[in-house]
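Cross-posting from the modeling subforum.

Setting up a comparison between two proteins and wanted a second pair of eyes on the formatting. Protein 1 (sequence, then structure tokens):
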Amino acid sequence: MRVEIVAVGTELLLGQIADTNAQWLGEHLAALGVDSHFHQAVGDNHERIVLAFRTALARSDGVIVCGGLGPTHDDITREAIAEVMNVPLHRDDEVVDRIRAMFSSRGREMPDSNLRQADVPEGATLIHQTMGTAPGLICPVGHKVVFAVPGVPYEMADMFKRAIAPDLAKRMTERGESSGTIVSRVIRTWGMSESGLAETLGAYIVGLDDHAAADGSGSTATIAFLASGIEGIKVRVTVRSSDEAAAVAALDDHEAAIRKVLTEAAGDVVFGIDDEAIEDAVAKALATDGLTLGLAESLTGGLAASRLVNVPGASTWFRGSVVSYASDVKFAVLGVPEGPVVSEEAALAMAEGAQRVLGADVGLSVTGVAGPTEQDGRPVGTVFVGLARPGHESQAVQFTVPGDRDRIRQYATIAALDYLRRSLARS
């Protein structure tokens, strides 16, 4: 079964709010085994909304409409649905009473404009509200269906779980479709380009159908690459299977195989799964070895420390950061020898200074050139990362990162944390 999502609201097109509803619905439709091949956003214009609904119904079995059910003049989803259904609207007195009672419970009088929220297309079924004023709608259009829910995310989610998901499951059963499930896993990498990842995994992707046939589960899988800027490149594996347990087992197999291919080709480029950020990987590595960390940041200006303290429990392994942006702070506080501060020597001294000043087991430093002009004869985008840790000789590496001033600082941060992660993994 295919279901399209249509978001209604000019504010979406103007970029004033983000459409988080489509993301949430896409994930939950997939969990039901429902395909969602198209998402639309349309402004508060009757003709364009009608066109969006008719377009969606022409290529899908159902539509979920978010928004446009409020009490104001620009909330016109009901009228548009009624036109698509070719039926009139009627006012539901029970809904009027519910809305009036909600206002009364808050010590307020219901404005007359709220009466519009009780208008229902002839033949539609109500999804009663439990949190707000606007009811949702289940509207048959021939053998297809339009579901209308409020744009408020928690109201939308409540109606989906109570009414839309069960209705979709029933329709799929009546169509003789196995509900199944669709699940995804994101493998997060740093250090390879999108094209490099695609080439490295090319043979594996070509053989996905063979893998499915070999395991006998009936699961099918697809792989996509998501370039995520300062968060690296994500490899998304999506599996469709008869049940969740089989899908998760297939994901486990694919993840293990992909990790093996990437490690053999490029080393330890995988740093996390799904929502695991680079700071989570660093935290895990430090906690495993029982080590504490101190930072010395110049170029990044505290960005690395800010990311690390996002991790719950960071106080057990993170000692702090010396944001030594000015050169004289590097000299006086961290003991960096006077001279060029964008250099391997400065990065080494900064890492050892952080280790000493902060009383940390591990010292990590970042220095470089964010622009707009070169410094110490180094071009914009030059980054040096220093690392000092017990039982090892201090090291420094040089990176060149692209972008404007902000991107260079962000890229330098994740490059430094990834260098630390890999170094700890090798110790």
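Protein 2 (same layout):
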Amino acid sequence: MRFLLTVVPLTTAFIIAACTHSEPSAPPSEPAAASTAASPAPGKTAPANPTLGSPEWFAWVDKTLAVSDDGHGPRPGTDEWNQAVNRKLGEEAPQAAPGSAEWQQAVDALLRTRVATH
């Protein structure tokens, strides 16, 4: 009995010491579902780095905002198309002159933010 009373407190002391001197564990990684929740919807992904005003950029904006309906509608880059983009963006439409470099940059930034959050 005396042996048991001596061993139990020593064992407990070693366990407590080991727990308090261990390195903190790394934080758990995010589940895969959480990392894909903010992924863009298929077909709405932003092109990697298209040049603003390039055919690839216009095609992406056109598809993202559904400006043209199956190829019917204003030709990308025209004044009519620029106005249609502004109408689709509503209150968020850039205040810069439609079609200008500043306008394209603002549209690009806005759509990339929208696509990333949907």
